[in-house]
Design goal:
Blueprint: E1 2-7, E2 18-21, E3 23-29, H1 33-41, E4 55-57, E5 60-65, E6 73-77, H2 81-92, E7 98-101, H3 109-112, H4 119-126, E8 128-135, H5 140-159, E9 166-172, E10 177-182, H6 193-213, E11 222-227, E12 236-242, E13 251-256, H7 262-283
Helix pairs in contact: 5-7
């Protein structure tokens, strides 16, 4: 997929928001003021059906990446760029990285299927490409391998006799906290990993206020919470490490479903932290 961001001194010679060239894999969007305004007001939602189906990450059904073999071409007026890319495309394909190159020759009319001297061909002749956006594919294999290795490491940790029942990485994207990567659920001791992840945004807010009061206290690195047993629970422990170089709300979490083994969480965290950070750096790199 490529997005050619264009400018033109003329208005498109068609009515409506867009015009497909031969198929819906090659589409020119209108630079008509009313169409641009409507598109931006609706945050690009009216063009969603034109984009290809994403690849669903099994760890989070809402997170999709762009199919690597998609060859769609979209010609987007400059006034639509921010909405189209930031609201629509990046909102749908959250794990796909994008690269932006300034001016690049647009495809020839023959390449996109325009022939003759009709009004659309004449319009296409005179548009100017301001920038081109396309997905980064060079690191897709590296990221896939890093994810597989990270999840295997998490599951290997949980499978050992160490009172550790879950290992996960939690992130916050400005809208919601989510579990980005986690070990598989254990068959006998259940852990509600989402419940732990949601609490962490408030934790960083608290620590940020503490740091403002005492700037010399340093950045939050890691902390252990002990939960008391009650009638419905045997208690539990979570060990939270702040992966601050990936943002204020990115955490590595070790969870025990019981109140035992607090030393084991610290031990396995220290033993595996450098390798986990190495893999997370690959997966969360932009």
């Amino acid at each position: 997929m490529k997005f050619f961001i264009y400018t033109s001194n003329e208005e498109v010679p068609f009515e409506g928001l867009f015009f497909p060239i031969g198929s819906y894999k090659k589409v020119i969007f209108s630079n008509n003021d009313k169409q641009v305004k409507l598109f931006n007001q609706r945050e690009g939602s009216i063009a969603k059906e034109l984009l290809p189906d994403g690849i669903v990450d099994p760890s989070d059904q809402t997170i999709c990446s762009l199919p690597p073999d998609d060859d769609s071409l979209f010609f987007i007026p400059l006034d639509m760029k921010d909405t189209f890319i930031n609201k629509l495309v990046k909102g749908l394909f959250k794990t796909t990285d994008w690269t932006e190159n300034t001016p690049q020759n647009k495809p020839s009319k023959d390449e996109i299927g325009l022939v003759g001297e009709d009004k659309l061909s004449q319009f296409y002749d005179q548009i100017e490409t301001q920038t081109v956006l396309k997905p980064v594919t060079e690191n897709s294999v590296e990221k896939t391998e890093a994810k597989q290795e990270l999840l295997k490491l998490f599951n290997d940790i949980v499978s050992q006799d160490n009172e550790i029942d879950a290992v996960l990485v939690s992130t916050y994207d400005g809208n919601r906290t989510r579990v980005a990567y986690s070990s598989d659920p254990t068959p006998d001791r259940k852990v509600d990993i989402d419940a732990y992840a949601v609490q962490l945004k408030d934790l960083v807010s608290l620590l940020s206020k503490t740091q403002k009061v005492n700037p010399d206290i340093g950045l939050f690195d890691h902390v252990t919470f002990q939960y008391a047993a009650n009638g419905n629970s045997a208690g539990g422990i979570i060990h939270v490490s702040h992966l601050s170089h990936h943002g204020d709300y990115t955490f590595l979490i070790f969870v025990s479903a019981t109140a035992e083994g607090i030393e084991m969480l610290e031990l396995y965290r220290n033993r595996n932290l450098s390798k986990i950070q190495e893999l997370i750096d690959i997966l969360l790199a932009h």
